[in-house]
Design goal:
Helix content: 40-55%
Number of helices: 20
Protein name: Bacterial sugar transferase domain-containing protein
Family: Belongs to the bacterial sugar transferase family.
GO molecular function, one term: phosphotransferase activity, for other substituted phosphate groups
Low-confidence stretches: 1-5
Structural class: alpha/beta
Number of domains: 2
Radius of gyration: 26 Å
Largest sheet: 6 strands, parallel
Keywords: Exopolysaccharide synthesis
Mean pLDDT: 87
């Protein structure tokens, strides 16, 4: 028996519609689970959240689940509506094989319970091809095989399985686990939904590119339109409406106005400036080889990392040349800025002069990584070097413009910039944002501090 102090440190969580979902990487979560941090594990996606709102028995089963993992772009978007950012999407079809690889390396044994007759066996064969060292000690279908719970429990216990995967679909699997987990000897029980069907080939997964674009639900809808139309078309709309209501109920009116304005303004701007975006991209490509857009990891609200988008204003080897010219910085402190930076192209100098290089960040605003107004997002290396007082900058969503930008931009030293950003964080409001946006137009036209 483990003592309470023997358990690993709890994982971070994010509130999604009143459900605490894990906010951690795949590996952190697997290590925590297999170290004894959870006995029962479930997943939450938009469909699950919709069912939870209508089925009190399922809702109660979820409340008693030890660990709930975020599954799908809907949960990610719902978290963003309340100003939170999930570290990773831990969808069951990708997460479960990774869990089983680590479990196999530790010598853990697995039992597969669920699916139509023959599906668990077919899934087991495929799993053994993917994870050759995996010890699968038994399978049982979720139809006739689940009709007598006592027989199913006896078979699972007799197999000596350490981990039981239950694939009966939501909400049946969660309620079965909730009802019978005390009778099972296994140390870990997971509700894995359609995982067996995917592994057995009963349902085809979307191509990797579609999954990376977070559009797997569109693929499922195209493959099974009659079965999935209600779930994905009506269901997704209902989920987003519910998530919006929940976000509004837990958010100040200023925050709601700010995010609503960000979405409306960024969409409008994208339509208005699309000819400018295309023209600038063409000019960049004509002057120097390489992509028109520059992508870079920055630190956002509460220290979350995201990829910022800008027009490329430098030669493609700019990062490699930084170390050689760092001592020429015109700004004191940890943030490098040089008025005569040799890495900047001719087009780059022009688009920097009028802040045109920042325009692609309208997409970052639309996606929720940034706001129109807020502290500028720092590089991870810069944030690591921040003094303690500068960390308060991370309490607000970073912005395209802000207090220090309209006060002189790169002419403002690091310490003064921190003071301005901290002042903004402490007094931010929707009216202040509107004032700063108005002042931004004057700052852009003057070009002061832009280099």
């Amino acid at each position: 028996m483990k003592h309470q102090t023997d358990f690993p440190r709890p994982l971070n969580s994010v509130d999604v519609l009143g459900v605490p979902v894990v906010d951690a990487t795949t590996r952190q979560t697997i290590d925590w689970i297999l170290a004894g941090g959870a006995r029962t594990v479930s997943f939450l996606n938009a469909h699950c959240a919709n069912l939870r709102s209508k089925d009190p028995h399922y809702a109660a089963a979820l409340r008693r689940t030890d660990l709930i993992l975020p599954d799908g772009v809907g949960v990610e978007m719902a978290a963003r509506m309340t100003g939170q950012c999930l570290t990773e999407n831990l969808n069951g079809t990708d997460f479960t094989p990774e869990l089983l690889r680590v479990a196999a390396a530790q010598g853990r044994s697995i039992f597969l319970f669920g699916g139509v007759p023959g599906t668990a066996e077919a899934a087991a064969r495929q799993l053994l091809l993917k994870v050759p060292d995996l010890r699968i000690v038994g399978t049982r279908d979720g139809f006739a095989g689940a009709a007598n719970p006592k027989e199913a429990i006896n078979q699972i216990n007799a197999s000596g399985a350490d981990i039981v995967l239950v694939a009966m679909g939501v909400p049946l699997q969660e309620m079965w686990i909730d009802r019978h987990e005390r009778d099972l000897n296994a140390s870990l029980i997971l509700g894995v939904g359609a995982f067996f069907d995917f592994m057995a080939g009963n349902v085809s997964r979307a191509p990797k590119m579609v999954r990376k674009s977070k559009l797997e639900w569109v693929w499922r809808l195209a493959i099974e339109p009659r079965r999935m139309a209600k779930r994905y078309l009506l269901g997704n709309f209902a989920f987003m409406a519910r998530a919006a209501r929940y976000a509004v109920s837990r958010t100040s009116i200023d925050t709601v106005l700010k995010r609503g304005f960000d979405i409306a303004a960024s969409l409008s701007l994208l339509l208005l400036i699309s000819p400018i975006l295309l023209t600038v991209a063409a000019l960049i490509k004509l002057e120097s080889p390489g992509p028109a857009l520059f992508r870079q990891v920055r630190v956002g609200k509460n220290g979350a990392h995201f990829t910022i988008l800008k027009f490329r204003s430098m030669h493609t080897d700019a990062e490699a040349r930084l170390a050689k010219i760092r001592e020429t910085s015109d700004r004191e402190g940890v943030c490098f800025k040089s008025r005569h930076d040799p890495r900047i192209t001719r087009v780059g100098r022009f688009i920097r002069r009028f802040s045109i290089d920042e325009l692609p960040q309208v997409l970052n605003v639309l996606f929720g990584d940034m706001s129109l107004v807020g502290p500028r997002p720092g590089l991870p290396s810069e944030v690591e070097a921040y003094p303690t007082r500068a960390m308060e900058r991370l309490q607000a969503r970073p912005g395209i413009t802000g207090l220090w930008q309209v006060s002189g931009r790169a002419d403002i030293g690091f310490d003064k910039m921190v003071d301005m950003d901290v002042a903004y964080v402490r007094s931010r409001s929707f009216l202040l944002d509107l004032l700063l946006l108005a002042l931004t137009a004057r700052a852009v036209l003057s070009g002061r501090g832009a280099y």
